[in-house]
Specification:
This protein has 172 residues and is mainly beta. It has 2 domains: 69 residues, OB fold (Dihydrolipoamide Acetyltransferase, E2P) (Beta Barrel), CATH 2.40.50; 91 residues, Nucleic acid-binding proteins (OB fold (Dihydrolipoamide Acetyltransferase, E2P)). Helices cover 12% and strands 45% of the residues. The chain contains 3 helices and 10 strands, in the order βββαββαβββαββ. The strands form 2 sheets. It has a 5-stranded antiparallel beta sheet with strand order 3-2-1-4-5. It has a 5-stranded antiparallel beta sheet with strand order 8-7-6-9-10. A hairpin with a 2-residue loop joins strand 9 and strand 10. The longest helix is centred in the middle third of the chain and has 8 residues. The mean pLDDT is 82.
């Protein structure tokens, strides 16, 4: 059994429908349970597999569990901007592309790998691709969820190329 304390690892997987997932860490003997309540306490509803995460761990009769999330670090994301540009077919240039816009999720379908959000004050839909979510450390979005996005114009209209959870957008 592993020891209690602060641990850095990577999300092995997280399933929002099941409400839990697991973290693996090189210096820890077992997988660490990550419950949805702990994720929500950090202001997130989802997290992508592979995201680097810092947690405090506690031992329970069921094993090692994350008690609190200290940080989620996407600085070494597997999906770089060049790949996103290629995937989305857009050129991201100019200051307007760097503005963080408040938005609300209209719908998102993991199975289809995309969804749409609406920027506050604008009626048009903004396309969100699953790979963009993963590059930002998210696994999915829930209808009505508040987020902040950066957009670019693609062949079919506005597309999000960066997305932040509302509570943590001010950190960006």
């Amino acid at each position: 059994m592993g020891k209690e304390g602060t641990v850095w690892g990577r999300v092995k997987w997280f399933d929002t429908a099941k409400g839990f997932g697991f973290i693996v860490a090189d210096d820890y003997e077992t997988d660490i349970l990550l419950h949805a309540n702990v994720l929500r306490a950090f202001g997130r509803n989802s997290i992508a597999g592979g995201a680097k995460i810092g947690v405090t761990v506690q031992q329970t009769d069921r094993g090692s569990q994350a008690a609190e999330i200290l940080n989620i670090d996407q600085s070494d994301s597997d999906v770089g901007m060049d790949k996103l540009r290629e995937l989305l077919g857009v050129t991201i240039t100019g200051p307007e592309d760097q503005t963080l816009h408040p938005a609300r999720v209209k719908w998102f379908d993991r199975g289809k790998g995309f969804g749409f959000v609406n920027v506050f004050g604008h009626p048009e839909d903004v396309f969100v691709h699953m790979e963009v979510l993963h590059s930002c450390g998210l696994a999915e979005l829930q209808p009505g969820e508040a987020v902040c996005i950066r957009t670019a114009t693609g062949p079919r209209g506005r597309m999000a190329w960066d997305i932040k959870v509302w509570d943590h957008a001010v950190d960006s």
